[in-house]
Amino acid sequence: MKKHLTVAFLGFSILYLASLSFPNSLSWLLKIIPIGVLALAVIKHTNQTAKPFLLFALAFSATGDTLLELDLFIIGIAAFLLAQLSYATLFVRRWQGLAHRWPMSSALILYVFVMAFWLLPNLGDLQIPVLAYLIAITFMGLMAIQSHYPVRWAVLGALVFISSDSLIAIDRFIHPIPLRSYWIMITYYAAQWMLINGCLGRTDR
User: Fold this and answer.
1) Omega before 153 cis (within 30°)?
2) How far apart are the C-alpha atoms of 187 and 165, rounded to whole Å?
């Protein structure tokens, strides 16, 4: 990603994080501006193969961000599920096989089973949508690990995305996390930046 776009992404991310202490009616807009900067970086990039998948992923992510900001949790989760499937589709196109980075895949599967076992008793009526999303993001993470994309930044971005969503699940269904909004958004923005940079490559530097 071009340096000036990275600076803009970082600046708008910090602006949104600062706004968390002062809730306002424009918080949803401030929240999605960093994602818009990433979309601009994708549009300007020459990587035509990855471009449509990344734009779909970012568009669904921005939609999910807005819906969650409006407390529309289930619809927001559905939008993010589509974002995960968009990323996963890109990774599937560069799939290397089950044996590729198998220790990382095994660790991710174990982690997801532990999270599912921990969450299930607390999900209530939301078992089906939450488990569907868990399956989608696990699939995305596995396909990232097993793709030819580099660990830095694409695979790392996928794993950080999973950690960000894990924080949301723990905070909502298990126990409130201190300063949760900051931790969730820092990991979320970091994950999106890593995914975009990793998938586009470093040819523009």
Assistant:
1) yes
2) 9
List, in sequence order, every residue forming a beta bridge with 95; answer none if it has no partner.
Answer: 147
pLDDT at position 110 over 80? yes
For residue 136, give both structure tokens: 């989608």
Q: What is the largest CA-CA distance in the chain?
A: 49
What residues contact 201, with CB distance under 8 A and at least 6 apart? Answer: 47
8 Å CB contact between 51 and 43: yes
pLDDT tens digits along 136-148: 999 999 999 999 9
pLDDT single digits (tens) 2-18 = 889 999 999 999 999 99
Handedness of CA 8, 12, 17, 22 (dihedral sign): positive
Instruction: Report the distance separating Cα 147 and Cα 111, nearest Å.
Output: 20
The domain segmentation of the chain, as residue ranges, is 3-200
